[in-house]
Write a structure and sequence with these properties.
Elements lengths: L1 H6 L9 H4 L12 H4 L4 H8 L5 E4 L6 H12 L2 E6 L5 H16 L4 E6 L6 H5 L2 H5 L4 E6 L3 H4 L2 H5 L2 E4 L5 H15 L7 H11 L3 H12 L9 H7 L12 H15 L3 H13 L4 H16 L5 H16 L3 H15 L5 H15 L15 H5 L40 H25 L10
Parallel strand pairs: 1-4, 1-5, 2-3, 3-4
Helix pairs in contact: 11-13, 12-13, 15-16, 15-17, 16-19, 17-18, 17-19, 18-19
Length: 448
Amino acid sequence: MSDLFEAAGIHPPDAPLADRLRPTTLDEVVGQDHLLGEGGPIRRMTEAGRLGSMILWGPPGTGKTTIARLLAKAAGYEYMQISAVFSGVADLKKAFEQARAIRASGRSVLLFVDEIHRFNRAQQDGFLPFVEAGIVTLVGATTENPSFELNGALLSRSQVYVLKRLDDAAMEKLLQRAEAYTGKPLPLLPEAREALFTMADGDGRYLLTMVEVLFNLAEGEQLDVQGMANILQKRAPAYDKSREEHYNLISALHKSVRGSDVDAALYWFARMLHGGEDPLFIARRLVRMAVEDIGEADPLSILVANAAKDTYDFLGSPEGELALAQCVVHLATAPKSIGVYQAYKAARKAAAETGSLIPPAHIRNAPTKLMKELGYGKGYQYDPDTPEGFSGDNFFPDGMPRQSFYRPKGEGHEEKVKMRMERWAQMRARIQAQKAGSGSDDDDWGIQ
């Protein structure tokens, strides 16, 4: 019902405080100066008096609906509003017919579509002809990443503007506006006032909802942080396990581990658990970090990651989460190497390009007499039996130059691996030079 009053520009006295304090001009919108301030893209459009279709993307309580309504008012457009939560095909047809009639009378129409990402792809396509014909200027609001949730055709006809969560300065302006409107100060001690911003978590609507509860307290009561917390409930964190925030946080955790920032890694790990993430999803990503970003620099990391997963399976929450936290710390503080990862990719590329080459004869298996007569296995040296445990033989296919895939940097355990590889390379070069000098040719088995 408040949306109906809002569309008409009316704020009844019994409406929620957040509705009664809605801005009446774009200048009163807080926290979005990058869009609405001097030189901002939306400001320039309104000053020109001609609006383009746009998608307003941002978290709840940042002013998307209010901006759309005030845009129509500032540019002299007729304002229409529908919600994808409550509207179906019939509602869309009705809205477009109404918009067509208004446009025929010479007035421009701004159609605001709240939660536009909830319309399916076919319904989103239904907007296109009306946008292209200029019957409506579309302003969609979404809390989800438009790249994933909206049709490419619709995005190509709209500008996407990102709204920011409200910072402390913006929320302080809202508090001052609420105090001026009610004519009384908030019954909070200074530290509780600051804690209120944290509880709102950037959501201006939720902030004013909590403020309204506080204004109803008995006169003269002053609350500290604990007293306020006993009355109010903290806003639930913005986290949807099936949508973008899920991928943003796991990316932040992975990159913090990769960047060896153990404190940031623990923070994002805790954020995901607090948001309700499945700990086993995190455990699977930790195993991936161990093999992808650490590898041979610390070969124990994969054992630690799998052990943490098994521990969580055995103990469950909350005790098993400590094993995952220990794994996060181990991986973040471990030396990093992508040597194996890069070597595997390079080897796959070489295999794809030379997939028809067969192994050299001396390392082929020779289970039959004929195969032995053909030279299979001839000249093969069993490396552990050689004086230095290294034969220096060529193990690549005949006709394929020797390749170098694995190139350790020398971090952690790879320092020893690198030293061994360098020693083997020197020995291999010496052995091959000796064979070439003696005139022997291991590739010629005298096969007729």
